[in-house]
Amino acid sequence: MEKGTFYGVGVGPGDPELITLKAVRAIERCPVIAAPETRGEKTLALDIARGAVDLTGKTILRMQFLMTRDKQALEESHRRQARQIMEHLDAGRDVAMLNLGDVSIYSTFSYILEIVLEQGYRAEVVAGVPSFCAVAALLQQSLTEMSHPLHIIPAGHGSLEENLALPGTKVLMKTGKALPQVREALRRQGLYEKASLVQNCGLPTQVVCHSLDEARDDIGYFTTIVVKE
Question: Where is pLDDT greater, at 174 or 141?
Fold first, then answer.
């Protein structure tokens, strides 16, 4: 029996209209849909896909990923999820793993893909619209101009002060609970007035703040700040 193909499919940041035609066709083609599940049984990527594709009759494989920095625990979790996917591939069923935004940016899919490829399975990757590109569109801002660089930074990790000192535009992703610290760091760097924010881009709960003064401190996990110099 010919084994199935593993697809990584970016579904964009939230608005189903931002799913690409190629992503729609990949999801339609696959009988098995692997959907990351967060705390509270939330499957945001699956909800987005449902807004663009009829998933009737498909097997939905809910994948619960750990929210931890323990490398060993994460490795074990990734291999456990990969085994679930490979069981379907061994049975000749194609599997599409859904990913918010693009599959190459802070995506758990990349870890699963590495394991699946190590085991000799076929895989295809379908790019999606990155959240920060959709955020820039909502803010009506360009992210780069001429030779200016663009830096994509996870706000809650690493040295924020050093990252903010980098030349060019800074995109701070997954700001969430770190917003109070980000506010202070931006003020110290003289960048506070150059920052804008979008929370839950493309979702019904979307909030657009052209100034950080408009944003509450208790914002959600899916919050992106653009610091445009």
Answer: 141
